[in-house]
Amino acid sequence: MIFSAVVQETCQEGCRFGGVQTGNRVREEDGVTIDMVVDRFFEAVERGDWGTLDALYADDLSVWHNFSDEVQTKEENIASLRRSRAVAAWNYVVAERIVIGDRVIQRHAARIQIEGHPELLCHAVLFITVREGQIAHIDEYLDTAAIQPIRARTPNN
Predict the structure, then answer these.
(1) What is the pLDDT of residue 153?
(2) Which residue range is the domain that position 63 belongs to?
(3) How many domains does the chain have?
(4) Whole-number average pLDDT of the chain
(5) For the chain, which has fewer Cβ within 10 Å, the N-terminal or C-terminal residue?
(6) What would the DSSP string read from start to end of 72-89?
């Protein structure tokens, strides 16, 4: 994975994806740190590992997007990510991650490759709530103009 190789060099305080980090690094739910849950989330999206993503998501997950001002359910979000990954490879480069209690704020750039197109770069910020070792809620802010080529190829995204 490009993502892992690029950011591992800047890793601080044991977080595999590096970047600037502050906040609670040791809080654990059943032996799993909040960082581990969030890292697994991004790894699963990169690999298109929908089984892992399903297990990481709480059954009552809600995902809000700034571009639609709508909330997706667990099933809707996984379906949306599946459609996006079907037409493009995603790699995340974390610029900053802050953990405050059960909330993670992450600023990153998604490097997106669609066959036959130059690489796309989409800057985003996610606010992720982790509850009992699972992701319970995500607020996602991103620039949809940057991912227009993907949206054009995936209906309902």
Answers:
(1) 63
(2) 2-153
(3) 1
(4) 82
(5) N
(6) EEHHHHHHHHHHHHHH-E
